[in-house]
Amino acid sequence: MTPFLRAAFRRPTVLGAIQVSVVVGSMLNVINQGEAWLHGASVSVGHLILNYLVPYGVATFSAARTELRRCPPDEEGHS
Predict the structure, then answer these.
(1) Could you tell me if residue 74 is inside a domain?
(2) Rounded-to-integer distance, Cα 6 and Cα 15, Å
(3) Structural domain of residue 62, as residue ranges?
(4) Which terminus of the chain has fewer CB atoms gathered within 10 Å of its CB, N or C?
């Protein structure tokens, strides 16, 4: 596994990304689909899912990149 993926799947990275995803994804869903919810219209399930996945991906990428910059892997790829 590459050093980046190792950093991305570390427990603290995953838990932090989930927290960011819940907060930011919920805000995005209210902004993007709140009016539909208020009026009882249907919401786009695809957009609902993406509103959580995108912040998760951004937070994971950012945390993994920061971890690699903080502790670069040695020549064998171990961090």
Answers:
(1) no
(2) 14
(3) 3-69
(4) N
Q: How far from the centroid of its chain's Cα atoms is residue 79's Cα?
A: 22
> Is 23 a domain residue?
yes
Residue whose structure tokens are 């912040």 = 55
* Lowest mean pLDDT, pick from 6-10, 18-22, 40-44, 70-74: 70-74
Residue type (1 letter), 71: C
Mention every residue, 6+ apart, whose C-beta is less than 8 A from residue 53.
21, 25
Location of structure tokens 């996945």: 53
Strands (E), the chain: none
User: Which of 7, 21, 15 minimizes the C-alpha distance to 61?
Assistant: 7
> Which pair of tokens denotes residue 34?
């709140």
